[in-house]
Every structure is written in C-alpha cells, then in structure tokens.
Amino acid sequence: MKVMLLVMDEQRVILDRLYEIVQQNCDECVVYRLSKQQQMNLGPFLASVEYQTFDRVVIFTRVKRVVRQLRVLKCIPGLIFLEHDAYQNYMPESKYRGVYSRLYKRLPACRALVSGAVVARKMQAEGIDTVFVSKGYDEQMLRNTGTERDIPLGFLGSLKSTEYALRKALLESLSQRTGLLVTRTNSGAEYLETLNRIRIFVSADIGMNEFMIKNFEAMACGCVLLAWSQGEEDRLLGFEDMHNTVFYRSEDEAVEKIRLLQSNPQLADRIARNGQAFAEDRYSFARVGRTLAAEIQREMRPWQPPSAFSRLWVKLRYGMKVPG
Q: Domain spanning 2-136+286-318: which CATH class is it, in words?
C-alpha cells in the first residue's frame, strides 16, 4: 500500500521521529512537509505529486486551513485526517466547536485519527469513521537524564491561545500560592534539560477532556506529573491517581497535593518512577507510530467520486486528475 503523509513544516513540537516510525511500518510511505500556503491551497500541490497514484493520503494540518477546501478534499480517495486538536470540537468556548464534525460528515469516506479516547467515541456516535490513537513522546529526544531537580514545581508551555484561558488563570494563581515556575523553552536540548530540572510538573489541561503531549513528555523525563483530571479519559488511557500520576480537580486540591508530595519525597519518587515506566511502555513514538501505520493501512469505507462538475472544476483550476 502506497501512503502519502502531508505534514506541517512549521510545527513547534518536533514530530520527526513519529513520522519516521509511520514510514517504517507502512509498505511505502512518502512524507511531504508543506508550508502554510501549501496547506491552505492543497490543489496545486496534490496535482504536482500525482496524488491519485497513492492508496492513502494522510493530512496533518490545522482544521482552519482545510475546512474551506471541501471541493478538493472530496476528490481524494483514501483520505485520512491525523488530528491532535479535535477536542476543540466539543469545547463550548472554542471557535472550532462543531467544525471537525461538520467537515468529516461532508466527507463520509474519510477517516479521522484523533488523540482523545472520549472524542473518538463521540465522533463514532455521529457516524464518523474515527479511531483513537494517543499522543506520545519522542523517546530518542526525551528521557530521564538523572540530573539534579532544582525546580520544585514547573510548567513549560504556551498560555496565549483562547482555548488556554482557563489554564492561564489557574497556573498564574498557583504560581502566586506555591511558587510554581511558568515559562517556555526552545524545543530540543533546552526543553529536555529543563524538564529534567523539574521535580513536579504541573499540567493544567482544563476543559479539554484530553491529555496534551506535555503530560507524556514530563512523565518520560522523570517528573512527578500533577495533572488536571480529564474524567473518564484518565482510566481509558491507563492513568492511575497516586500510582503513576497525581490528579486534581480544583486549585485547592492541587495545592493540597503539592504539599503532600513535597512533604513525602518517597511517595513522590515512587509516583515519578511508575509514571516514567508507564510512559515508556505505552506512549513512546515507537509504539504510537506503529499504531498509526496500522490504522492508516486498514480497510476504509468505499469512496464515491465527486460530481462531474467538481471533477472538471479541480482539473481546470489545479490540474488535478481525479480517479474515476
């Protein structure tokens, strides 16, 4: 099976290892890194690479860049969306609420590979071919280096997006109450070094019903993960409170558990060790990538060619040859 994987060339998170594992586990897989402009105008690029000769075309981009390209998307058999932000489909405060469902329903033969177990179940209930494949971490880049942890409490990441308003408010309040360090680093070596200096990593994925990639990265680097509970998602992904992670459901509970962990170093050490082993066993890119490759190559729903008008339109506009 011949697979085309279209990915973003400007991502802050480095996912090269994940793409490499997917390639290794597909019969044939070609990765193309698309600029923002190419993502927003897929037609010319697809025509230039003879997309119709591929059995699967996997698109990993932001939904806002493809949602207005429905006519082009309908011309792609074997279309798969790899999506790490589909939790926004069900966030009341997100401007993308419902956008993912509407797009996928208008492409009934497509498959969505989403990174939330509850999100996948909700989309399946809407009749969308949806598969849960978790986020993970780059096991070649991120690891426990065994260095001194001189940052008692830390959070690394962005607070700018409107979807992160609740996260920002909570972290800023915790910073005042506990001395939590909230900062950003460059990807790569600086990120690895800083994670390995943090004793307790405070995650605040409030209202997302899904765990962001930083949770897995912090655990793999040997931090104690103090995470906002995502409800049923916790159990579905294998997280266990006070065993491999520490959950909280309010600011006061977070402060209480921080004090507990800081007053009981042996407990904190045990949870950190269990969390690291858990991440290494289940959420490395080596494992996640194999799952992605299997789901990409699995049989899909029958594809129906678009109308004659749409076929002519994309041919005249972009030079796309639509399979018939």
A: alpha beta
Phi, psi of 47 (to 5 degrees): -65, -35
**Segments making up each domain of the chain, as ranges:** 2-136+286-318, 151-283
pLDDT in tens, 283-304: 999 999 999 999 999 999 999 9
> In sequence order, which ranges of the chain are alpha helices (DSSP H)?
16-24, 36-40, 42-48, 63-66, 70-73, 99-105, 117-125, 165-178, 189-195, 213-220, 232-237, 251-263, 265-282, 285-297, 308-318
On the 0-12 / 13-18 / 19+ scale of CB atoms within 10 A, 125 is: exposed
Contacts of 178 (CB under 8 A, 6+ apart): 153, 255, 258
Q: Is the pTM of this model over 0.85?
A: yes
Residues 208, 214, 218, 221, CA torsion sign: positive
pLDDT below 70 — which residues of the chain? 12, 161-163
Under the phi-then-psi rule, with left for phi > 0, alpha for psi from -120 to 50, and beta for the rest, what region is 238?
Answer: left
* Superfamily in which the 151-283 domain is placed by CATH: Glycogen Phosphorylase B; (3.40.50.2000)
Q: How many CB atoms lie within 10 A of CB 178?
A: 18
- Judged by DSSP in three states, 65 sits in helix
Domain 2-136+286-318 and domain 151-283, same fold? Reply is yes
Closest to 244 (Cα-Cα) out of 194, 286, 281: 281
The pLDDT value recorded for residue 90 is 94
Task: Read off the pLDDT of residues 45-93 as tens digits, 9 standing for 90 and up.
Answer: 999 999 999 999 999 999 999 999 999 999 999 999 999 999 999 988 8
d(CA 65, CA 47): 18
